[in-house]
Structure formats: structure tokens, C-alpha cells
Amino acid sequence: MPVDTTLAQYSDYAFASGFAIYVLALVLSVVDFATASVRNTVAADPRTRAVVTVGASTQDIPGRIEDRGSTRSLGERAGRAAIAVTIVALALNVTAIVLRGLATDRWPLGNLYEYALFLCAATVACWLIAVRQYPIRKLTVFVLAPVVVLLFIAAAVMYNDAAPVVPALRSYWIAIHVTIIVTASGILTFASTASLLHVIAVKARHNTRGPLAWIAGRLPSAELLDRVAYRTTIIGFPLYTIGIICGAIWAEAAWGRFWGWDPKETVSFIAWVLYAAYLHARATNGWKDLRTSWINVAALTTTLFNMFAVNFVVSGLHSYAGLN
Fold it and tell me: Per the CB 3.0–4.6 Å rule, which of 65, 155, 173, 243 could disulfide with 250?
């Protein structure tokens, strides 16, 4: 079936518009974070003690009734605007993906460019859900910064014209395996980012000066960051596991074997082991210190290596992302 060039062009327009709005949201989130006041007071209410900490605004506490007579600060207005603008950008991000699929009459995950768009959408969607559950609005900058960088790389390096997929991807499994994997990767990316910030927050307790201390002073509590990372990983890891299983089933149908230790398969398995080790350590030994967070950060590093190094450098059975 020929490609609908009009829809493909509209997809590119939606991507460009979404990228510009993501950048605007990032600027607003920087203002929110940079102007945040550093607080050391702890709420008397035991329910809020776990979430009111250095740099955490009491206006972000779920269930708190805001004083209608109070005037919001510049940072808070910017932070709330960043969330609203991010929702618009996400809608355009998803629109770009959908139009890409309609233009080519296929599932829009046929190359690395489309994978990057889907991964960014999954990460931002996970973030928007999490920010409604936890008082972590100040983390917006740490979510949007990598999203903007990845979208820039996608446009500059990964972009491919809308076209039919290669024969290896002409299967209904692409809609199952790849969608689950990329969704799980977006969730786990956010979880690992929270673990990295947990490391920064804990390290800053022993070093009250320097850039890390400045950042930590505006973050939510280390305990809250650790809890968010753990609960998010609990959701993302089962999806990641299902995605790997579906990939093995697809591999058996396409290549005659469930597992062949292809570079992408191998690195994906290493990431799976690291995420499993993180959850196992938390569940069995009750670790809540830097050791578990470093495991989650290592898993993120492995995932990024799988996306960039494996796709750009290594050749294998999965080298059909439009880069070789």
C-alpha cells in the first residue's frame, strides 16, 4: 500500500509542534525548580511527615486544602503551567505516532525514530500519572530534560521517512511485543531516574555544599524518592517480563528459536536481571539504602546502552531500525 504523504507530513508537523511545547514546558519547570525555596521544617501531621521535606511545597501534599487567599509564587505558577503544557505536548506526541501509523497503514513502531517517540510518550504519561499521586512536581525538569534530548536525537539522527516496514516486522507480534517493551521501558526509565535522584538526595546529607547539595535541597525527601522508584518499578518490571516472553515467542516463529543471544536480546536480559535484583533486594532483605538505588541506576544505564550503542554500533538480527 502506498504511503499517504499528507498524513506523514502532518505527523512531522505534530512532532515539531510537540517538541517545541516540550521545550517550553522544560523552561517552565526549570523556573519552578530554580526558584523553589529550601525548607527544613517537617509537618506535625504523621501522614504528611513522610512527604514534607527539604524543598517540598506543602501545597503539593495530596488532600491538603489550599488557602484561597494565598498568592502563588512565580515558581509554583511556572510549575503548574509546566504540567499543563506537558499534557498538550504529550497529546501532540501521541498524534505524531498515530498519524505515522495511519500514513503507512501499519503499527507505528517499525524503526528507531518511531520507537523514540513512543518511549518519550510512555515516560511522560507515566510521569503525569505519578505526579497526581505523589508531591513530586519539582521532578518535572528531570523528566522533561531527557525527553527533549531524546526527541532532538530522534529528529537529527534517527529520522526515517514514513514507509512500509521490512519483512521481519510484518507480523501482529510487533503490536504486542514492541508496544509492551517500549511502554515498560518508559515506566522503568522514570523509576530509575527517581532512584538516581534518591542517590543524590542521600549523598547531599553528608555534603551540604556544591551543586549536588543545591539540587538535593529542592528535591522531595530521599524516602519519598525511593518509594516512588520502588512502586513504579513494581509496575514496569512485570510488563518488561511479558514483553521479553512475547519477543521470544515471536523469535521462534520468525527465526526458528526462542533465544539466540543476539546483542539486543543479551543486553535486554541483563537489564531484566538488574531490575529483578532491585526488586528482590527490596522484597527479601528490605534494603532501602543506596545499594538498591544503584542497582536501579545500573539497569537504566544498561537500557540506554541497549538503545543507543547496540542500535548504532552493533550488528545483529535486530539491526532493522533504519540506522544500518
Answer: 173
Q: Are 244 and 269 in contact (CB under 8 A)?
A: yes
Whole-angstrom distance, CA of residue 188 vs CA of residue 119: 11
Is residue 147 exposed (0-12), middle (13-18) or buried (19+ Cβ within 10 Å)?
buried
Q: What angle do CA 261, 267, 269 make, to 5 degrees?
A: 75
Q: Which residue has the cell 538480527?
A: 317
Q: CA 275, CA 184: separation in Å to the nearest integer?
A: 12
3-state secondary structure of 69: coil
Task: Report whether 60 contacts 72 (CB < 8 A).
Answer: no
Instruction: Please report the pLDDT score of residue 183 as a whole number.
Output: 94
Predicted local confidence at residue 172, as pLDDT: 86
Residue-wise pLDDT for 203-219, tens only, equals 877 776 777 788 888 88
What is the pLDDT, as a whole number, of residue 261? 79
**DSSP per-residue codes, 110-140:** SSHHHHHHHHHHHHHHHHHHHHHHSS-GGGH
* Of 243, 228, 206, residue with least CA distance to 282: 228
**Interacting residues of 97 by C-beta distance below 8 A, sequence separation 6+:** 11, 108, 114, 117, 118, 121
Pair 78, 137: CB distance under 8 Å = no
| Range name among 56-70, 176-190, 285-299 with the lowest pLDDT average | 56-70
C-alpha neighbours within 13 Å on the C-beta side of residue 324? 15
Query: Quick one: CA dihedral 121, 225, 203, 274, positive or negative?
Result: negative
Whose cell is 525538569? That residue is 141
